[in-house]
Batch of 2 targets.
Target 1
Amino acid sequence: MRVDLHCHSTASDGTDTPAELVRNAAAAGLDVVALTDHDTTRGYGEAMAALPAGLTLVTGAELSCRIDGVSLHMLAYLFDPEEPELLAERELVRDDRVPRARGMVARLQELGVPVTWEQVARIAGDGSVGRPHVATALVELGVVASVDDAFTGDWLADGGRAYVEKHETDPFEAIRLVKGAGGVTVFAHPGASKRGRTVPESAIAEMAAAGLDGIEVDHMDHDADTRVRLRGLAADLGLLVTGSSDYHGSRKTVALGEYTTDPEVYGEITRRATGAFPVPGTGGI
Ligand code: AMP
Ligand code: FE
Ligand code: FE
Ligand code: ZN
């Protein structure tokens, strides 16, 4: 059984539509795929409608958080998407992405880059707008060669010349809100140091004490040493260990199912969740 618990669609900064994502997941031989768009559940309906037989959909989201000035991502699974408190926080973060992206466009214009908000808005479509969309605009303009190349101090990396902060949730509040909506939390790529500062282990221990369920260990942004360290930390703290592709379609090089989660851990996540159930595919449209 092959389980990939972290994937993005055009509902945020992936390039597959939700329907394409589930079809591609089935074609990649996955049995379970999670849809975890940044700060939104908007892709759920389309993904469910297109879900091929033999593939199970885990509904989720990747929540933007910040602690002591360090940004982090909290994966949330199988929460009730209608629960009002979590919904309100998700909308706050997602809506703040628009003025924030406009702010990054303004910074880039000050730096002499002829990017416009209209261009970024076209690239983002109706997805929750983020830096990868701005990065794609920079690629279109020939400013950088690839999306990855836009994530440097010169451009869009945390603290970079054109970086603008957005509203991000306190992770303890995120854990509380997700639990309140019947969901399960997994700290996404906690050792992804190339993305900027990472959260210290002491803070992860505090999150574990506050009800964090797991950490994502097998991820392309973690080298072998980091995975060993994080596995040890998870064992010490009694946290579940997941692995996932963090697939973004053509915006990243990673393939669906390139990293996977142990089926037993997946089973434990489904047992803990009360806000929603995994959706078995019936054939799709
Ligand atoms: P945002 O949520 O708008 O701040 O953008 C964060 C997104 O940018 C992440 O979810 C990744 O998709 C992407 N990202 C972050 N850091 C990097 C990086 N160093 N290289 C490539 N993509 C990145
Ligand atoms: Fe992303
Ligand atoms: Fe992430
Ligand atoms: Zn992600």
Note: Residues 8, 13, 38, 132, 248 surround fe (iii) ion (ligand 2) (CB under 6 Å).
Target 2
Amino acid sequence: MNLTKEEQAMFDGVQGRATQKAMEILTTLGTIYGAERMIPVTSVQVAGVSYANLGEAGLAFLSEMADGGGRARVLTTLNPAGMDIENWQTLGISAEFAENQQRVLDAFANMNIITTATCTPYLIGNTPHFGEHIAWAESSAVCYANSVLGARSNREGGPSALAASLTGLTPEYGYHLGAYRQPTINVQVEGVFGENTDFGAFGKILGEKLENMGGRRVPYIRGIESASVENLKSFCASLGTYGGVALFHMTGITPEASQIVPPGDAMVIKEEDIQGARESMIDAQSTEIDFVSLGCPHLSIKEIARIAELLEGEQVTKEFWITTARPTKEIADRMGYTAVIEAAGAKFAADTCCVVAPIKGRFTALATDSAKACYYAYAKNKFKTALKPFDEVVFEALK
Ligand code: F3S
């Protein structure tokens, strides 16, 4: 790669061991992917935050970077941790895990990284604009940033996102380049879209088809008339999970769609395909459901307001986690939504989620509106699942 004088000095260790290590990571990546140069990034989102996934080896790497003088050079936020940072006892997290998770968060804080732990950074102020180069690691957020915001990010791993934060740089390849953002397949979808589950089921069937085709996957989607922010974050999570997709274009909805000439023949996805995908995420009987969770990806304040409306004066009968970013929870506190929700017996799980928290063995079956949560509930924790529309998930907690 061609490095500038300043970048070469970073690579040579002039700015400390952590910056040098970060440059080694980035130049290795750049060389593998054929990047000619580094480009500056303005925003980073680091994944690999839960101690359950990192373990001591991951924590040792973070501590080495923090002790080696690593400091964030651009706005950097974190993906969810393994627990609610303030309220972990209520969620049944052990004191030992909490202590280790706090060591991870302290290492990030030492690097001046904002320890707001969320997979929806775009809802809480880490919100890049159209065309901005960024380095994000959470797959659903990368897909949202690329597709819905029109920012430019590759799907970073935890170490490469951290390296981007500590240098303010990323190698220029992949989705940073216009040519790579061109659609590879034209998709015509038929059906009625309204619920997050509709978008999640569509993301699953489309993702699986693209996965089977291999290669670069940038679908150009026609047939959806409108989609809310909440629908799109759900779709991005599903498409990223089942198809490894980091960018899609949707006519009339995403910003680059109108600037692009779609490829020729269209793959058609019919309502019955989507229904089949929906049904494939339901293997739990209602009597088996002992865990209910909304907030994959993390809930918006609008969704939390709806939960409060539905739970007003009610009492839940099952463990019900409401997962969101801490700043969103703080708005819910101020608006009185938290008081209503907690009076009903549901629990906020800020900073974390039903996938990254260490809950294996605690439950049998999960009710959720998230196709991504269904995938990991089984893959990670061997829970059965029941995919249901948002309101019905809340009603499930009341049965
Ligand atoms: Fe976010 Fe956890 Fe889902 S990180 S996208 S809530 S699996």
Note: The longest strand covers residues 291-299.
